[in-house]
Sequence to fold (348 residues):
Amino acid sequence: MDIREHVPLAPLTTLGVGGPARYFAEAATEQDVRDGVEFARSRGLPLFILGGGSNLLVADDGFSGLVLKIAIRGIDDSAASGRRIFDVGAGEDWDSFVALAVARDCAGIECLSGIPGTVGGTPVQNVGAYGQEVSETIEDVRALDLNTSQIRELCNPACGFTYRASIFNTTERGRFIILRVRYSLKPAGETTTTYRDLKTFFADRVTPPTLAETRQAVRQIRRAKAMLIVPGDEDCRSAGSFFKNPIVSREHFLALQTVARARGEEMPGYPSNDDNVKIPAAWLVEHAGLARGYALGPAAISRKHALAIVNRGGARASDILALMDQIQSAVAGRFGIELRPEPVFLGF
Ligand code: NAP
Fold:
């Protein structure tokens, strides 16, 4: 495996900011991953695992350790008890895999079309959108356990999936390197169109949409929000949603709603687990007085979605952080809610 030095990281992220990696390597095999880990360990270097760079903010000074980009490829599929099992390398492009599953008429991930990044990133934050999340279809995750140096197959319950979380980004953060993921999809299955945006999109349909039509609809909806990477669209130079949708107790939500109503605003909220309520962060940003398109130097709020911070060209990580702070202060000042950033911060 070729270990390079002083490799710029900005071009490897969708946001396009940040400095270089002191060391950088691409791991195309499980042995490469082991070699990368050994290289970092033997030199006492911090190790960072890079997937598609779609949810990442790199510091201006870069990262002083080894960045290991997972490039394990390969998609195998087989039949099992009325399901189709896809065994996918962690370095495969997620949306290309979704396209393949849809082309093979297998249901379960079509609503996750157009999400940038690689397959290995999907279990980490239990990627979800438009009414589906990967925890519904992941059979198991093959990973290198850095505690024991053994490769393990973690079954779905062992991954501890919850809303946008798993053991990989909570209790066991940094312990596993994901190598492959197996998804169990439903052949000739029906699509899921329960989500508001999809219901609206298909409002005039009499027959249920096909998987391919759902995929196309999701990509179109994402494109309108600049949440689909389209070359040349400056609003896509982002890390996707920059803030998590906050979850508050029902009591807290009702109190917030009462205050908002007194101001003539209707705060939206969706039931979450355990009698909690999920509040769309984009609504909070816009109602805290920060409109889409608002810019602070070369960092801006996307013109198409209030939740995305965009690099308008030449932005530094410090510009992104300054805008992040401003948004957080505005929302905290107006609603008393602390917005938490969603991207991973590297080198800060
Ligand atoms: P949106 O559709 O405006 O929704 C904003 C928030 O309201 C989300 O928390 C969403 O819940 C909730 N919501 C909207 N309609 C709902 C319904 N009918 N029932 C229950 N909850 C509802 O959000 P957006 O920012 O444009 O994102 C579109 C989709 O992409 C959402 O599903 C969002 O979660 C997803 N997304 C996922 C990630 C990720 O996996 N890291 C990042 C960005 C966006 P849900 O979150 O449960 O959908």
